[in-house]
């Protein structure tokens, strides 16, 4: 039995409350990092179902990662335990899969269709094009063509003039044959999960009406990162003047490389002329210095020039942002580890429990899960992970790779297909791994390279670790297992509840927050990242857009920090055996000296006062 509580809007500030209490019609919430956008979204939904009598079945919340979905579901369950399980919380792909599972016949699919992985897609393409290399190249082009074609089809069906897709007749022909073969094998690909529902809803008014009636209330978090196809799906699901709530921050748009376009956020007001708009300006996450650093960092390319962002957390001794220049990436990693040990009070072995209250009076000591190390590309994690391992500091790494694309997973899955359907999945996975190892042992006679063998064996073992939790969760449901495998876009071994230091790419850190953040690799070429030869392939406009996006990533990184932020950069970098000097990131120059404290003395620890300030966390 629950105590009667106040309104679900009680925990919100006046602006957040205004946003959450706007229950009808289109609504745009534009706000900077840490202003409680995600919190407002959850309270708004809870308020709708608990205090406005909205049927939870009519509610749909969309966000970008499955992890973010889980968190939303959890938060909703905390607020409205009765109704929460009946609210649909999905990624775009998850939603699309739901629609296709409900209506496979409308898409010309069998009831038992599965989601193809890249190996299965490649098998289809191999039959359609001349050689292996061409088939591999087509994996990406076909995928892109499919998304664009479906989006343009929907735009045309809605009577909007959209740009020509510009595909050659050969490309269109290949796409059609590829899709037909795929569907003929009772498979869909990842792109189909959104492209098919978009095409179906654009084509069939009855389906459109059905889903508009079903999802009368839609909330989308991180709306700045929708791509054209996702945008089309939302438009199809929302009648004119419908209850679509879009939440986001244009300055945190970081998925341009995947086809996301912040333009869709910016045209919301045009798409929904009756939309109400609410801005949130209070940042509840970060210290004053960190808020100021974030705002300064993004200012040169901000898409929200009149942005207001006020720091609400009163930290008595606001510490400046630490900036460290390290000799190379290993030295940078040592700086991170040394500082972490210092923060943790010199001991390598703090657990969450011992960390909170310590003998020397830490009232709110740090634990491992309070700390994150962020970087631009996955490869940068390596020196950090090695340095942490050497010190015995527990960490977990989150990367953006799909489980299904992991080399070992592909091997194991190849041996899993055709396995007895009545066998429990976890067992089937172990058997498949064993068969993969047997095959590897057999190959050993053909190859004498032990290193390759060890690597492949390691990959298979990793695959078992990755697949087992999923297999256990879907013990009797191979279809669900395969579906989720393809959907579970990331190898997400990252567990928000684990008491470990987090190693995250800037992309993976989106939406999260940590008391202590290290942002490593603030160097030209790393952040902003420059791919070799990019200046040859890209137009000047493209390069400028890329640079702006890199800067937004810098902004996202800085704004993850609650109390302590450390920026660092290596002065030398070794690539392919070549060592070269690298300049500090040009982005750093946006941060004035009033915000920065240089921590350049190698090995020197910070002043006592600085360590003492930690107790004020
Ligand atoms: P991002 O842009 O990074 O996704 P966000 O705008 O979604 O950020 P939230 O993650 O919802 O922000 O909130 C940031 C932090 O501020 C969270 O710790 C949240 O609990 C806290 N917070 C939000 N609103 C309030 C409030 N009204 N009172 C106290 N704390 C709040
Ligand atoms: Mg958020």
Automatic annotation (TrEMBL):
Residue ranges annotated for the UvrD-like helicase C-terminal domain, each copy included: 288-563
Domain of life: Bacteria
Residues involved in ATP binding: 31-38
UvrD-like helicase ATP-binding domain location: 10-287
GO cellular component entries: cytosol; DNA helicase complex
Record has Mitochondrion as a keyword: no
GO biological process: recombinational repair
GO molecular function: 3'-5' DNA helicase activity; ATP binding; ATP hydrolysis activity; DNA binding
Catalytic activity: Couples ATP hydrolysis with the unwinding of duplex DNA by translocating in the 3'-5' direction; ATP + H2O = ADP + phosphate + H(+)
Enzyme Commission number, as recorded: 5.6.2.4
Record key words, sorted: ATP-binding, Helicase, Hydrolase, Isomerase, Nucleotide-binding
Similarity-based family: Belongs to the helicase family. UvrD subfamily.
Name of the protein this chain belongs to: DNA 3'-5' helicase
Organism of this sequence: Gandjariella thermophila
Residue span relative to the full protein: 471 to 1087 of 1087
